[in-house]
Design a protein that fits this description.
Chain A: One of its GO terms (molecular function) is tRNA-specific adenosine-34 deaminase activity. The complex is a heterodimer. Helix content of chain A is 32%, strand content 16%. A 7-stranded mixed beta sheet of chain A has the order 1-11-10-9-6-7-8. A 4-stranded antiparallel beta sheet of chain A has the order 3-4-2-5, covered by helices on one side. Chain B is α/β, with parallel strands linked by helices. Chain B is 38% helix and 15% strand. Classes of the chains: A alpha+beta, B alpha/beta. At the A-B interface, helix 7 and helix 10 of A face helix 2, helix 3 and helix 5 of B. Bound molecules: zinc ion (2 copies). The site of one zinc ion (ZN) has 6 residues of chain B, from helix 5.
Chain lengths: 355, 183
């Protein structure tokens, strides 16, 4: 007997991690700025010093920076340290020929009572607010900042956003996409497959493989899938009878109602409203599973279609959801969505190699 | 700017100013016609060696497919034109110019690259979705696996194109009277 393909080694859902594709702002290292801090030698002067520093050296673009920090070294004589000013606030001449400016250099142009403040030292502070826990942890090594944590991103980065039963379902959907890719490949197409799913009901709405080597050079798997979803809603621009693995399902309304919770009802009512307005937000609330990272055309088609989330297996060189562009979080665009990569990467990468 | 002159496909002759003007007049005429019929006022023509081989208007509403922009519809017509005449699709696209009243969006710009269109002439910028410099620069970015970059000539009757779009979106406002939708 043939081994069950789902049971092949390395394809069980505990062998891969779903990796969120975050924006550059969320994933890059925070930039650091040079600043001068000084010890607060007399604790009772703290609030006065902070108030006067805020007036003399306001830090309007650095709202996330906590002006005062507790001294890391418990053995020092001073318990607190305060940011005096940014290094860029100090005219160049001040430091010439010396190791660094003194407190009176920093305060020379200010009417400021430096009582209780020690000699300044150079520190680096994060130039922007941390957006993720890893950024926050790195930032905190330099200087304390405030952090409004997005709990979903934190658990996604730890690989804990999806339960094992959710991953098992993801695997089923991706398997369907992989099977579509294989069907297409036997017809001479590139081995790429895609599936659109309604996550509220778990129902599959459309399955497609790449058809660009067939009658239409732009019929990438994602474009076919989008058109099939339109067909399932009474629209659609093309026929795919040559490609039986490309198909759609009309959603079963009974499944929709029996499995729907309150939040699902709400999200459905907004998409219904969008449809009543005559806007074709055909993929509102839906998830796409695709074996490889979409190209620019396909990624932007998903923006126009208002997809909810995209899961892909293998990255591609010109890919538009993480590799070359991040169209799902591109500033200026009117719709953004979540993207996760690394779903069954091994099986999906094998497809890339099939010639 | 990157010099693109050396890499134009052999035999592709850039249209003269008066040709450009003539085709853009046709595209604007189409856009005006669309506006009068309550449709997205974008005019779009594909021209192969002085012949119109594709013409498109936005078909998003009737197909419920949000990717059916005028350019995508026009590209389909060029494919159809090639099939009917048994012409080599790649060869035809390599010598086809797109004339469109509004900058193509990111999706359409990528589609034009994938089909190796050498030149796009457009009217106004598309600040919301533009793929030829406004939001992203798909037309000229270095994308070795996404067809070939194309040249753009922009700004032709730009104000007029913007004005038509503004009028359309005013109509789209739910408080404004509904335009009749042509089947
Ligand atoms: Zn694609
Ligand atoms: Zn477009």
């Amino acid at each position: 007997m043939e081994p069950d393909p789902k049971r092949r080694k390395g394809m069980e859902y505990d062998s891969w991690d779903v990796v969120p594709v975050l924006s550059d702002e969320q994933s890059q290292d925070l930039k650091l700025l040079d600043a001068y801090a000084a010890p607060i030698m007399e604790k009772r002067e703290t609030s006065r010093l902070v108030k006067e520093l805020a007036t003399s050296f306001p830090l309007p673009d650095l709202q996330h920076i906590k002006r005062v920090r507790a001294c890391k070294d418990k053995n020092t004589s001073h318990p607190l340290e305060v940011i005096v000013c940014l290094a860029s606030d100090v005219p160049d001449q001040e430091c010439k020929g010396r190791t660094g400016p003194t407190l009176s250099d920093l305060l020379c142009s200010q009417t400021f009572d430096p009582r209780g403040l020690g000699e300044p030292f150079l520190v680096q502070i994060p130039a922007s607010a941390p957006l993720t826990r890893p950024q926050f942890e790195r930032a905190s090594k330099h200087w304390p900042t405030s952090f409004h944590e997005d709990k979903q991103i934190t658990s996604a980065l730890k690989g804990q956003l999806f339960s094992s039963s959710e991953k098992a379902k993801m695997q089923e959907h991706m398997m369907e996409a992989i099977e579509a890719a294989r069907s297409g490949h036997t017809l001479g197409m590139d081995a790429v497959g895609a599936v659109v799913v309604d996550p509220q009901t778990g129902q599959r709405l459309a399955v497609a493989h790449d058809c660009r080597r067939g009658t239409h050079p732009l019929h990438h798997a994602v474009m076919v899938c989008v058109d099939l979803v339109a067909a399932s809603q009474g629209g659609g621009a093309y026929q795919y009878e040559k490609y039986p693995a490309c198909r759609y399902y009309v959603p079963d309304p009974q499944v929709t109602t029996s499995h729907m919770d309150v939040s699902a009802l709400e999200s459905h009512s907004t998409s219904d409203k969008a449809k009543e307005n005559g806007q074709s937000y055909i993929c509102t609330g839906y998830d796409l599973y695709v074996t490889r990272e979409p190209c620019v055309m396909c990624a932007m088609a998903l923006v126009h279609s208002r997809i909810n989330r995209v899961f892909y297996g293998a990255a591609t060189a010109d890919g538009a959801l993480g590799s070359r562009y991040k169209i799902h979080c591109q500033k200026d665009l009117n719709h953004h969505f979540e993207v996760y990569k690394g779903v069954m990467p091994q099986a999906c990468e094998e497809l890339l190699d099939s010639k | 700017m990157r010099s693109q002159s050396g890499e134009e496909p052999a035999g592709f002759l850039q249209p003269s100013d008066s040709e450009v003007q003539g085709w853009m007049d046709r595209a604007f005429h189409m856009a005006k016609d669309a506006l009068e019929n309550g449709e997205v006022p974008v005019g779009c023509l594909m021209v192969f060696k002085a012949e119109i081989v594709g013409k498109g208007r936005n078909e998003v509403n009737e197909t419920k497919n949000a990717t059916r922009h005028a350019e995508m519809v026009a590209l389909d017509q060029v494919l159809e034109w090639c099939h009917l005449r048994e012409r080599d699709v790649k060869e035809v696209f390599k010598h086809t110019v797109l004339y469109v009243t509004v900058e193509p969006c990111i999706m359409c710009a990528a589609a034009l690259r994938l089909l190796n269109i050498p030149l796009v002439v457009y009217g106004c910028k598309n600040d919301r979705f533009g793929g030829c410099g406004s939001v992203l620069d798909i037309s000229s970015d270095d994308l070795p696996h996404t067809g070939t970059y194309f040249k753009c000539i922009s700004g032709h009757r730009a104000e007029e194109a913007v004005e038509m779009l503004k009028m359309f979106y005013k109509q789209e406002n739910p408080n404004a009277p509904k335009p009749k939708v042509r089947k």
